Amino acid sequence: RKEVEQDPGPFNVPEGATVAFNCTYSNSASQSFFWYRQDCRKEPKLLMSVYSSGNEDGRFTAQLNRASQYISLLIRDSKLSDSATYLCAVNPPGTYKYIFGTGTRLKVLA
Amino acid sequence: SQTIHQWPATLVQPVGSPLSLECTVEGTSNPNLYWYRQAAGRGLQLLFYSVGIGQISSEVPQNLSASRPQDRQFILSSKKLLLSDSGFYLCAWSVLAGEQYFGPGTRLTVT
């Protein structure tokens, strides 16, 4: 089992739709979780950290499910500009490393 | 505020030539520093990370090396490039195991 796994997609959704991605992780003791957005040929940009209590920033909501070992990202009212690849990252316990998923590609269609 | 610089933005190098990519961070002290490579259409592969000057951890054995001569400077090097070294090289920083921030990257093509 990979340390961090994501559905590569693509997820094709119409403007205004709600879409959710999951990211599973293998190390149950992991403490820190993050979502990044990466546009084509650009560097990943931090979207949000994922806290145990969840995290919301405008149209974006991130949640952590420790029992099932996954984090999720929910995007409401999708915009064309949300089209990108969304990467999750997990910090394994006792290290300063970050393990990234391979990303989920989102296409928002007009 | 913190800023991370990488240069050059693009690079085309012949097989067997040396490589030196530099990354500097401004606005923070004693950051953790990272080098990643992203092959076309692939995920991020952690190459090296450093928690302090002169401290380098290597994640993937290969013909690359890294050095941290100053607190906010991280250098990725190779003595002889291979075709398989082509990719998008990203430097990143974090404070402890907190949020990680990436530089703009260097797109390397080995011909």
Instruction: Tell the overall outline of chain B.
Output: globular
Total helical elements of chain A? 0
Identify low-pLDDT runs of chain A: none
- In whole angstroms, the N-to-C terminal distance of chain B is 38 Å
| Rounded average pLDDT of chain B | 94
What structural category arises from helix and sheet content of chain B?
A: mainly beta
User: Which sequence of SSEs, written as H and E, runs from N to C of chain A?
Assistant: EEEEEEEEEEE
What's a quick, concise take on this entry?
The complex is a heterodimer of chains A (110) and B (111). With 110 residues, chain A is mainly beta. Chain A has strands at residues 4-6, 11-14, 19-25, 32-38, 45-50, 55-57, 60-65, 70-75, 84-91, 99-100, 104-109.
List the helices and strands and how they pair.
The complex is a heterodimer of chains A (110) and B (111).
Chain A lengths: L3 E3 L4 E4 L4 E7 L6 E7 L6 E6 L4 E3 L2 E6 L4 E6 L8 E8 L7 E2 L3 E6 L1
Parallel strand pairs in A: 2-11
Antiparallel strand pairs in A: 1-3, 3-8, 4-5, 4-9, 6-7, 7-8, 9-10, 9-11
Chain B lengths: L2 E5 L2 E4 L5 E8 L5 E7 L5 E9 L2 E4 L5 E7 L2 E6 L8 E8 L5 E3 L3 E5 L1
Parallel strand pairs in B: 2-11
Antiparallel strand pairs in B: 1-3, 3-8, 4-5, 4-9, 5-6, 7-8, 9-10, 9-11
Overview of the structural elements:
The complex is a heterodimer of chains A (110) and B (111). With 110 residues, chain A is mainly β. Helix content of chain A is 0%, strand content 53%. In chain A, strands 2, 4, 5, 9, 10 and 11 form a six-stranded mixed sheet that branches. A five-stranded antiparallel sheet of chain A has the order 1-3-8-7-6, with no helix packed on it. The N and C termini of chain A lie far apart (37 Å). With 111 residues, chain B is mostly beta strands. Chain B is 0% helix and 59% strand. Chain B has no helices and eleven strands. In chain B, strands 2, 4, 5, 6, 9, 10 and 11 form a seven-stranded mixed sheet that branches. In chain B, a hairpin with a 2-residue loop joins strand 7 and strand 8 (73-78). Chain B is globular, with a radius of gyration of 13 Å. Chains A and B meet through strand 5, strand 9 and strand 10 of A and strand 5, strand 9 and strand 10 of B.
